[in-house]
Protein backbone atom coordinates (compact mmCIF):
# COMPACT_ATOMS: atom_id res chain seq x y z
CA UNK A 1 0.00 0.00 0.00
CA UNK A 2 1.26 3.53 -0.72
CA UNK A 3 2.53 5.66 2.17
CA UNK A 4 1.84 9.00 0.48
CA UNK A 5 -1.65 9.59 1.97
CA UNK A 6 -0.33 9.33 5.52
CA UNK A 7 2.77 11.41 4.76
CA UNK A 8 0.47 14.14 3.38
CA UNK A 9 -1.29 14.21 6.75
CA UNK A 10 2.05 14.35 8.56
CA UNK A 11 3.75 17.10 6.54
CA UNK A 12 2.55 20.47 5.27
CA UNK A 13 2.27 21.15 1.54
CA UNK A 14 5.76 22.65 1.80
CA UNK A 15 7.08 19.38 3.28
CA UNK A 16 7.51 20.65 6.86
CA UNK A 17 6.50 19.02 10.15
CA UNK A 18 6.55 19.76 13.87
CA UNK A 19 5.93 16.64 15.94
CA UNK A 20 5.53 17.14 19.71
CA UNK A 21 6.74 14.02 21.53
CA UNK A 22 4.75 13.16 24.65
CA UNK A 23 5.76 9.49 24.86
CA UNK A 24 8.32 9.85 27.66
CA UNK A 25 6.32 7.90 30.23
CA UNK A 26 7.05 4.78 28.18
CA UNK A 27 10.62 4.65 29.51
CA UNK A 28 10.20 4.18 33.28
CA UNK A 29 12.11 7.29 34.41
CA UNK A 30 10.67 9.62 37.07
CA UNK A 31 12.29 12.76 35.61
CA UNK A 32 10.54 12.15 32.29
CA UNK A 33 7.10 12.59 33.89
CA UNK A 34 7.49 16.30 34.63
CA UNK A 35 4.80 18.19 32.73
CA UNK A 36 2.91 15.07 31.65
CA UNK A 37 1.61 13.74 34.96
CA UNK A 38 -1.91 14.48 33.66
CA UNK A 39 -1.70 13.20 30.10
CA UNK A 40 -5.13 14.28 28.92
CA UNK A 41 -4.44 17.84 30.07
CA UNK A 42 -0.96 17.82 28.50
CA UNK A 43 -2.31 16.55 25.17
CA UNK A 44 -5.18 19.05 25.20
CA UNK A 45 -2.74 21.93 25.72
CA UNK A 46 -0.64 20.88 22.73
CA UNK A 47 -3.71 20.20 20.57
CA UNK A 48 -4.87 23.79 21.18
CA UNK A 49 -1.52 25.10 19.90
CA UNK A 50 -1.89 23.06 16.70
CA UNK A 51 1.33 21.21 15.76
CA UNK A 52 1.34 18.84 12.81
CA UNK A 53 1.72 15.70 14.92
CA UNK A 54 1.79 14.40 18.47
CA UNK A 55 3.94 11.39 19.33
CA UNK A 56 2.33 9.02 21.84
CA UNK A 57 2.57 5.47 23.14
CA UNK A 58 -0.15 2.91 22.52
CA UNK A 59 -1.46 3.24 26.07
CA UNK A 60 -2.03 7.00 25.79
CA UNK A 61 -2.99 7.39 22.13
CA UNK A 62 -6.71 6.96 22.87
CA UNK A 63 -6.75 10.40 24.51
CA UNK A 64 -6.02 12.20 21.25
CA UNK A 65 -9.27 11.66 19.28
CA UNK A 66 -11.35 12.49 22.35
CA UNK A 67 -10.02 16.06 22.48
CA UNK A 68 -11.80 18.76 20.42
CA UNK A 69 -9.71 19.99 17.52
CA UNK A 70 -7.47 16.93 17.40
CA UNK A 71 -8.64 15.72 13.98
CA UNK A 72 -6.22 18.07 12.24
CA UNK A 73 -3.27 16.62 14.18
CA UNK A 74 -1.56 13.37 13.18
CA UNK A 75 -0.65 10.62 15.61
CA UNK A 76 2.92 9.27 15.51
CA UNK A 77 2.93 5.99 17.43
CA UNK A 78 6.01 5.08 19.48
CA UNK A 79 6.56 1.36 18.91
CA UNK A 80 9.53 0.42 21.10
CA UNK A 81 10.22 0.59 24.82
CA UNK A 82 13.79 0.74 26.15
CA UNK A 83 15.53 0.79 29.54
CA UNK A 84 18.62 2.86 28.73
CA UNK A 85 17.78 6.32 30.09
CA UNK A 86 18.87 6.10 33.72
CA UNK A 87 22.02 7.49 35.29
CA UNK A 88 23.51 3.97 35.32
CA UNK A 89 22.77 1.25 32.79
CA UNK A 90 21.05 -1.89 34.13
CA UNK A 91 22.67 -5.30 33.80
CA UNK A 92 20.38 -6.27 30.92
CA UNK A 93 19.55 -3.77 28.17
CA UNK A 94 16.58 -3.98 25.84
CA UNK A 95 14.71 -2.10 23.15
CA UNK A 96 11.53 -4.10 22.63
CA UNK A 97 8.80 -3.63 20.05
CA UNK A 98 5.19 -3.63 21.20
CA UNK A 99 3.10 -6.51 19.85
CA UNK A 100 1.81 -6.06 16.28
CA UNK A 101 3.05 -2.50 16.20
CA UNK A 102 1.88 -1.54 12.75
CA UNK A 103 -1.54 -3.16 13.11
CA UNK A 104 -2.05 -1.13 16.28
CA UNK A 105 -0.94 2.01 14.45
CA UNK A 106 -3.51 1.34 11.71
CA UNK A 107 -6.23 0.77 14.32
CA UNK A 108 -5.35 4.09 15.96
CA UNK A 109 -5.28 5.91 12.59
CA UNK A 110 -1.63 6.91 13.01
CA UNK A 111 0.26 8.81 10.32
CA UNK A 112 3.56 7.07 11.15
CA UNK A 113 5.32 4.75 13.56
CA UNK A 114 8.55 5.66 15.35
CA UNK A 115 11.35 3.28 16.38
CA UNK A 116 14.84 3.78 17.84
CA UNK A 117 18.17 2.89 16.23
CA UNK A 118 20.38 3.18 19.30
CA UNK A 119 24.17 3.37 19.36
CA UNK A 120 25.57 3.32 22.91
CA UNK A 121 29.28 2.97 23.73
CA UNK A 122 30.31 -0.70 23.95
CA UNK A 123 26.74 -2.01 23.59
CA UNK A 124 26.72 -3.81 20.20
CA UNK A 125 23.99 -6.23 21.28
CA UNK A 126 21.57 -3.35 21.82
CA UNK A 127 22.38 -1.89 18.42
CA UNK A 128 21.82 -5.32 16.83
CA UNK A 129 18.43 -5.58 18.55
CA UNK A 130 17.44 -2.16 17.18
CA UNK A 131 18.51 -3.12 13.65
CA UNK A 132 16.25 -6.17 13.87
CA UNK A 133 13.38 -3.99 15.14
CA UNK A 134 13.72 -1.59 12.22
CA UNK A 135 13.92 -4.41 9.68
CA UNK A 136 10.83 -6.12 11.10
CA UNK A 137 8.83 -2.89 11.10
CA UNK A 138 9.88 -2.07 7.52
CA UNK A 139 8.22 -5.26 6.26
CA UNK A 140 5.00 -4.61 8.16
CA UNK A 141 4.92 -0.91 7.21
CA UNK A 142 5.03 -1.81 3.53
CA UNK A 143 1.98 -4.06 3.95
CA UNK A 144 -0.16 -1.32 5.45
CA UNK A 145 1.17 1.85 3.82
CA UNK A 146 2.49 3.10 7.16
CA UNK A 147 5.42 5.56 7.11
CA UNK A 148 8.39 4.41 9.18
CA UNK A 149 10.17 7.05 11.26
CA UNK A 150 13.54 5.81 12.45
CA UNK A 151 15.30 7.56 15.33
CA UNK A 152 19.08 7.07 15.02
CA UNK A 153 20.52 8.13 18.39
CA UNK A 154 24.24 8.32 19.13
CA UNK A 155 24.58 8.33 22.91
CA UNK A 156 27.31 9.20 25.39
CA UNK A 157 28.11 6.82 28.22
CA UNK A 158 25.41 7.06 30.90
CA UNK A 159 27.87 7.93 33.65
CA UNK A 160 28.99 10.96 31.63
CA UNK A 161 25.60 12.63 31.23
CA UNK A 162 22.74 10.33 32.19
CA UNK A 163 19.23 10.69 30.78
CA UNK A 164 19.35 11.61 27.09
CA UNK A 165 23.15 11.32 26.78
CA UNK A 166 23.40 12.94 23.34
CA UNK A 167 26.72 12.67 21.50
CA UNK A 168 26.84 15.55 19.02
CA UNK A 169 29.79 14.21 16.99
CA UNK A 170 28.70 14.63 13.37
CA UNK A 171 31.04 11.84 12.27
CA UNK A 172 29.02 9.44 14.43
CA UNK A 173 25.62 10.90 13.58
CA UNK A 174 26.08 10.77 9.81
CA UNK A 175 26.76 7.02 9.41
CA UNK A 176 23.94 6.09 11.79
CA UNK A 177 21.51 8.32 9.88
CA UNK A 178 22.65 6.71 6.65
CA UNK A 179 22.18 3.23 8.15
CA UNK A 180 18.60 4.17 9.06
CA UNK A 181 18.00 5.26 5.46
CA UNK A 182 19.53 2.06 4.12
CA UNK A 183 17.25 0.02 6.40
CA UNK A 184 14.21 1.66 4.82
CA UNK A 185 13.28 4.73 6.86
CA UNK A 186 10.66 7.00 5.32
CA UNK A 187 11.40 9.75 7.87
CA UNK A 188 14.50 10.32 10.01
CA UNK A 189 14.37 11.73 13.55
CA UNK A 190 17.97 12.61 14.41
CA UNK A 191 19.97 14.56 16.96
CA UNK A 192 21.54 17.94 16.15
CA UNK A 193 25.32 18.00 15.92
CA UNK A 194 27.61 20.13 18.09
CA UNK A 195 28.26 22.57 15.23
CA UNK A 196 24.78 23.24 13.86
CA UNK A 197 26.26 25.02 10.84
CA UNK A 198 27.45 21.59 9.65
CA UNK A 199 24.00 19.99 9.77
CA UNK A 200 23.57 20.23 6.00
CA UNK A 201 25.95 17.25 5.86
CA UNK A 202 23.44 15.16 7.81
CA UNK A 203 20.68 16.29 5.45
CA UNK A 204 22.81 15.31 2.46
CA UNK A 205 23.68 11.85 3.77
CA UNK A 206 19.97 11.18 4.37
CA UNK A 207 19.68 11.03 0.57
CA UNK A 208 16.37 12.81 0.17
CA UNK A 209 14.62 11.25 3.17
CA UNK A 210 13.13 14.08 5.30
CA UNK A 211 15.04 14.76 8.51
CA UNK A 212 13.22 15.93 11.64
CA UNK A 213 15.63 17.08 14.32
CA UNK A 214 15.26 15.85 17.90
CA UNK A 215 15.14 18.37 20.73
CA UNK A 216 16.87 16.36 23.46
CA UNK A 217 17.12 17.63 27.02
CA UNK A 218 15.64 20.84 28.39
CA UNK A 219 17.33 24.04 27.20
CA UNK A 220 16.82 27.79 27.63
CA UNK A 221 14.25 29.44 25.36
CA UNK A 222 16.85 31.48 23.49
CA UNK A 223 19.03 28.42 22.90
CA UNK A 224 16.27 26.15 21.61
CA UNK A 225 14.79 28.86 19.39
CA UNK A 226 18.15 29.92 17.93
CA UNK A 227 19.14 26.29 17.31
CA UNK A 228 15.83 25.57 15.57
CA UNK A 229 16.20 28.59 13.27
CA UNK A 230 19.68 27.42 12.29
CA UNK A 231 18.60 23.80 11.74
CA UNK A 232 15.78 24.81 9.43
CA UNK A 233 18.19 26.98 7.47
CA UNK A 234 20.49 23.97 7.15
CA UNK A 235 17.75 22.04 5.36
CA UNK A 236 15.88 20.14 8.08
CA UNK A 237 12.27 19.24 7.23
CA UNK A 238 11.15 19.97 10.76
CA UNK A 239 11.59 19.03 14.40
CA UNK A 240 10.47 16.52 17.03
CA UNK A 241 10.61 18.24 20.43
CA UNK A 242 9.25 16.93 23.69
CA UNK A 243 10.65 18.17 26.99
CA UNK A 244 11.37 21.65 25.61
CA UNK A 245 7.63 21.95 25.03
CA UNK A 246 5.88 19.92 27.72
CA UNK A 247 8.19 21.04 30.55
CA UNK A 248 7.98 24.69 29.51
CA UNK A 249 6.02 27.13 31.67
CA UNK A 250 4.04 28.06 28.54
CA UNK A 251 3.87 24.90 26.39
CA UNK A 252 1.24 26.30 24.04
CA UNK A 253 3.32 29.45 23.47
CA UNK A 254 6.46 27.41 22.84
CA UNK A 255 4.58 25.23 20.37
CA UNK A 256 3.42 28.32 18.48
CA UNK A 257 6.92 29.81 18.54
CA UNK A 258 8.43 26.67 17.06
CA UNK A 259 5.64 26.30 14.51
CA UNK A 260 6.37 29.84 13.30
CA UNK A 261 9.99 28.84 12.67
CA UNK A 262 9.22 25.53 10.98
CA UNK A 263 6.36 26.73 8.76
CA UNK A 264 6.77 30.49 8.39
CA UNK A 265 10.54 30.91 8.47
CA UNK A 266 10.40 33.12 11.57
CA UNK A 267 13.67 34.39 13.02
CA UNK A 268 14.62 34.30 16.70
CA UNK A 269 12.94 37.58 17.64
CA UNK A 270 9.70 36.74 15.86
CA UNK A 271 9.53 33.31 17.48
CA UNK A 272 10.33 34.54 20.98
CA UNK A 273 7.52 37.08 20.67
CA UNK A 274 5.06 34.21 20.97
CA UNK A 275 6.47 33.46 24.42
CA UNK A 276 6.27 37.03 25.66
CA UNK A 277 2.60 37.32 24.67
CA UNK A 278 1.15 34.96 27.28
CA UNK A 279 -2.36 36.36 26.85
CA UNK A 280 -2.61 35.26 23.23
CA UNK A 281 -4.43 31.96 23.02
CA UNK A 282 -5.34 32.12 19.36
CA UNK A 283 -4.53 28.90 17.49
CA UNK A 284 -1.71 28.66 14.99
CA UNK A 285 -3.18 28.86 11.51
CA UNK A 286 -3.96 25.48 9.95
CA UNK A 287 -1.29 24.03 7.71
Keywords:
FbaB-like; 38% helix; 10 strands; 287 residues; two-stranded antiparallel ribbon; fructose-bisphosphate aldolase activity
Describe the fold and architecture.
By secondary structure, this protein is an alpha/beta fold. It has one domain: TIM Barrel, CATH 3.20.20. The protein is 38% helix and 16% strand. An eight-stranded parallel beta barrel has the order 1-2-3-6-7-8-9-10, surrounded by seven helices. The two termini are 25 Å apart. The C terminus is likely disordered.
Instruction: Give the SSE string.
Output: HEHEEEEHEHEHHEHEHEHHH
| Total of DSSP H or I helical runs spanning 4+ residues | 11
CATH architecture: Alpha-Beta Barrel
**Rg (C-alpha, Å):** 17 Å
- Specify the structural class: alpha/beta
DSSP E strands, number:
10
Uncertain segments are: 279-287
Major beta sheet, specifics?
8 strands, parallel, barrel
- Bin the strand percentage: 15-25%
CATH topology grouping: TIM Barrel
| CATH class identity | Alpha Beta
Overall tally of structural domains = 1
Q: For this structure, what is the CATH homologous superfamily?
A: Aldolase class I
What is the helix content? 25-40%
Strand order of the largest sheet: 1-2-3-6-7-8-9-10
Mean pLDDT: 91
Pfam family, one: DeoC
GO molecular function: fructose-bisphosphate aldolase activity
Protein name: Aldolase
